[in-house]
Each structure stands twice: as C-alpha cells, then as structure tokens.
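Example record for the data management plan.
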Amino acid sequence: MTTEVSEQEHQASESPKEPLLDEVMQMPLDESKAEYAEAHAWSDPQRIHAFSEPIRFLQAMVHPSGTLHLVWTSNNWLWYSRQEGDGWTDPQRMFVGTQPSAVMDAQGTLHVIFVHSFAGRYQVYYTRYVDPYWAFPYEISRTPGLSHNPYLTVSKNGLLYAVWEDDTPGFPSIYHAYNPEGYWINAPIPGVRGWRPALAFDGEDRLHLVWESPIPTGAGDDIFHTQMTPAGWTLPENISDSPRTDSSIPRVTGAADGTIHVVWQEQWGNRLEVGYARGRYASWTRPIALTRTGRNYAPQITAGPTGHVHVLWQDMNTLAYRYWTPGKKGVWHMAEALDRHISGVEETALTCDPQGRAHVFWTRKEENGWGLYYRYREAPPKKHKHYIPTILANG
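Corresponding structural encoding:
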C-alpha cells in the first residue's frame, strides 16, 4: 500500500538532487546502501513464455492499437511473438540472423533490421511484417567490411533510418542508411568513428545519433552526439565528458518538446553506474548518476507522450526502474525494484505506449530453462503527487 499525502507534508518519493556522475565515480563503494521503493504502480509480474535456450537482443514495440510485439534472437534465429487477447502468440521463427533492432511505425507496420552472415560476410538486412506475413529480407548495408550492431528508428512520417558499425574503412566507423521512396541509400557518416550507435527522432522530427568512441587521453571511451540538419551532420560533441572513466552502451530517446535524453553505462575498475544527460545540440546538462551502488549496467530509456522519461537497468539480481517528471527543473523519482531473483536478470526491453503506459520485459534463469516476464504501469500523473514509499533493502 502507498499513502498519498500533500506536497507540503512529504516529498519522499522524490530523490534528493542527483549527484554529478564524476563525483559518484570517485566515491567508495558501499553496496549495502542500495534501497528501492516497492513497485506499487505496476501490474503483477506475468510469465509469458518459457525457453530451453537463452534469448538475446529482446525488442519490444507497441502497435497503434496498443498491442505489444516482441522480437528476439536465440540460437542464431530471429523469433517473433505478440499479444493476442489475454495471452501471447506462440513464438514464430522468422529468419537466420542475430542482433535485431525493431520499430513500429504510425501505420502499424513492424520493421526489423538484423545481422546475417552469408559466405562469411556479416551484413545488415531489412524485413517488415504486415500481418500475417514477413517480407523476404534483403541487404541494406552492402559494404565489403564487417557490419554489425545495427540500430533502427522511424520518423513521424514513416521515414526509416538505420545505423551500424562497419570496418570497411579499416577502422571502426558508423554507417547510416535511410529509405526515401521505399529504397535504401547508405553511406558512412563523415568524421564519426566508434561503436554501439543508437538513434532517435525528437518531438520535432530531428534525427539524433549517439555512439561510443575513444578519447585522445586513452583513458577509455566517451559518449558523443551529432544531429542531422539540412546542411548535414553537426560536429560531434562529447556529452559524457568523463576523461578518467569509461563510458559505453549509450541509449537515446527524444521527448515531445524536442529535448534529447541519453543514458549509458559508466565504468571505473569494478564500479558500474548509469550516467544520464539531456539537452539539444550544443546545450547539454552536466552528466549525473542515476545510480550509486557500483553494480548497475545495461540501461534502457524511453519517453512517453507527456514528456515523462522511463529508465530501466540491471543491478546484479535486481531489475531496477526510475522515471523523470518534466518541469522547470524536472524530478527524478526514487528507484523501484521490479524483480529480484537469485539467478539474476538477463535480457530486458522497455517501451511506452501512446497513452503513456510503460511496458517492461525481462528474462531470468530458472530450473529448466529461462522465463520471459512482463509488467506494465499506468502513465505517471502530469503533476506529481507525493507518496511515502515502502523502502526495500537490496540484499
């Protein structure tokens, strides 16, 4: 149970001012202080599938009707399932491939890109699903080098945009492709070297790219951003700005007001935290730490239609979640534990529907295989109401 109180009486569900990421990375590790609020606003966990083999690259999408769709890979095959009535369809095997990235457009067409190896060439392929058929995949990367880690997004008017890593120039580069008039055009992005690219359109349909790249000091990688303009891509800008630590695995989402929100994994020695920054081209907040326990990794992020931002990550055996309420200063709310299991959380996916509900999926190891679980929460209130949360020790 949660107890609603007035703003004047209590503000316990709001976290204190978030510390700067650089400060947290220098703090002594103290995992005993990890605390999470109970996930009262969430549905009960539902086990929707069971697998004999682990799954990877789990993707979750929402159809305009509200139906949820899933794509993942297992044993080098792509698989698909969707909500149907009160349950889910049996997993459908699609094509040989791995590393899928999937999006749903405004018309309800599901688009997927993935990596497929043919004659020793790893290339990026594209397919789409219009119930009940999958289109035959075709190659969109078309480079002589190794293409992998693809990422796909779609604009409001249905323009598909893809990026991936490619070593064709002889060093790690980021290539992009888009599909005007239904055919794909691809090229390297000038001046962009690195790994693990991610894309998002903001609320004004401007395209943003984030990626991981080494910094000149050699201490590790940082997270960089560039924006597509009518004149081309803007100059890369360093948004993690952490010369002493290693920043990796960025994820990005665009809010309705045009703001870009980015999370990533920050590492120094054995310490792992979730870093965060928001802004626009040439105007970014200083990076803050959304976590402080030293064992947090694999963050994901999405924004709802009212501007709320949802973040999901793994904290050892805990599936953790926080959300941000927009405003003049904005408020990050206390982290919640969505699942705890002795074998730990493995694959995760996060999405938000047009009504602002957040949907979370995750897998965990069980006695005879792996289970795939699901929870959702209603959209947070536009004006924050304060609650006294039940606190759980993370032990």
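Summary line stored alongside the record: The chain is about 0% helix and 55% strand.
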